[in-house]
Amino acid sequence: MEKTITDEQKRVHYNCSKCPAYCCAIYERVQVxxxxxxRLAKHFGVTVEEATKRYTKVWGKERVLRRKKDRIFKExxxxxDPDTRGCTIYHGRxxxxxxxPARTRCVYYxxxxxxxxxxxxxxxxxxxxxTFRKVHKKTVGxxxxxxxxxxxxxxxxxxxxxx
Length: 163
Known about the structure:
The chain has 163 residues and is of the alpha+beta class. It contains five helices and six strands; from the N terminus they run αααββββααββ. The chain has helices at residues 22-25, 34-44, 48-55, 95-99, 107-119, and strands at 56-59, 62-65, 67-69, 75-77, 135-141, 147-153. The strands form three sheets. A two-stranded antiparallel sheet has the order 1-2. Strands 3-4 form a two-stranded antiparallel ribbon. Helix 2 crosses helix 3.
């Protein structure tokens, strides 16, 4: 009887080496934990205090990785190699980077492949920008006079000159 060997891993539908590293650049912050900082310290052979000082900064109430100027995107993770577009600390990278994209598909890689097919250009590079908006609930009346809560998407910007 012949044995069938199966791989429990699901098929991955992206190739990071063919991507310009969207995940390392379009997010304005990559939050790091104490464990991540310990990993960075071990990777570089420095103290936790030195790793914290050199490689992270405070953003609001979060500790995040530092960023640097990037020739494709405005900024990117300080550990992104600008030529290979790969991670220079792959084995020391933070947990959030290890887990990404946490599924068998990567939305950025899908968008990249789609645009390259649409443009009939294997080198096309769509620039992707994330914009976050606040979602709030508003009470409105329906046709029957009943009140209900409705999700309203948009940002609450200050009005200038009554406009």
